[in-house]
Amino acid sequence: xxxxxxxxxxxxxxxxxxxxxxxxxxxxxxxxxxxxxxxxxxxxxxxxxxxxxxxxxxxxxxxxxxxxxxxxxxxxxxxxxxxxxxxxxxxxxxxxxxxxxxxxxx
Length: 106
Fold this sequence. Notes:
This protein has a 4-stranded mixed beta sheet with strand order 1-2-3-4, sandwiched between helices. By secondary structure, the chain is α+β, with helices and mostly antiparallel strands.
């Protein structure tokens, strides 16, 4: 089983290319961080595979991507785990990346 690091790098490169192609990012230097640690509202440190943020019109937008390099489709439990992980972090937008797709319900 892969540790997923190569897939994280691939998703990071892909997302960075998408961000770099957006018009607003010409004015902002958006960098994607790997294995970003963020404290939730209870002081619990949460780690995310990829993270970036930017400010637009005085509002900060924060996004995380969880990368799953699994041989099988991602289950709803994995989606629920991500939702639980971000629940106590204000204004965080989650994205899930997988090569194999999702099980029914996920």
